[in-house]
Amino acid sequence: MNILSSREQNNLSQILLVGLISITLMFGSGCGGLDTKRLKKMGAIAAIGLAAKLIYDMVVNYQSKLINDEDKVIEKYKLAHGKLPEEPVVVAYESSIQAGNIVTAGNDITILSRLEVVRGASTPTLTIEEKITIYDNENKNKELKSFIKVVNSKTNASGTFENEFIFQLPMGMPQGIYPIRTVILVNGKAYIPVDNQMQLVQIKQNNTLEMIVSL
User: In 18-88, which ranges are E strands?
Assistant: First the structure.
């Protein structure tokens, strides 16, 4: 006999609640008068609500590692440009989902990023932040979860950093393709973001993947 953890019990309760609401909406509107298009729309609304509820309490862990200190990035920048810029510059930024973009609920998902920032001549200290935003699989403009973390909290200086966002999608999340956007902020100013997509699939009892492709 399998005993569910408190988190799994909570997720199961939420799934059943959304399902009950969906059924109530269907019968409340009169099933006989509902066409297929309207039923699909109602199902999509219920799925969006479920995803938003399940992901709301999701924990996002973050860690950052200094690769090159400020002196090294300043030296490199001056060799290429002759002098420091007046304002901070994001020299390089890349972000990707480790081990591919196909993911499963309940397992660690790691977003690895690497960035290089050089301070400006008029900004001896600065705050570098990285923000991650996960969007809905149906409504690509709807934010499900966002999280922001200071990259250089120990030094308040520029440099080259390697960072990781680590999280687990909760059990019960609807299958589909979820856009992920990461962006660097320097002293509150956002720079060009990086967009990725993770495709959530389910694992059947025989350990095969069941996949729904959303275009």
Answer: 60-68
Distance CA 45, CA 201 (A): 20
CATH 2.60.40.3880 range(s) for the chain read 59-210
Sign of dihedral through CA atoms 12, 196, 180, 168? positive
Tell me: the pLDDT tens digits for 168-209? Answer: 999 988 999 999 999 999 999 999 999 999 999 987 655 555
Which residue type does 17 have?
A: L
Identify the architecture of domain 59-210 in CATH: Sandwich (2.60)
- What pTM did the predictor assign? 0.75
What the block records as the tokens of 75 is 């030296």
- In whole angstroms, what is the distance from residue 134 CA to residue 164 CA? 15
Determine the distance from the C-alpha atom of residue 38 to the mean position of all C-alpha atoms in its chain, rounded to a whole number. Answer: 30
CB neighbours (10 Å) of residue 75?
11
> From CA 46, how far away is CA 21, in angstroms rounded?
8
| Relative orientation angle of helices 6-29 and 36-56, to the nearest 10 degrees | 150
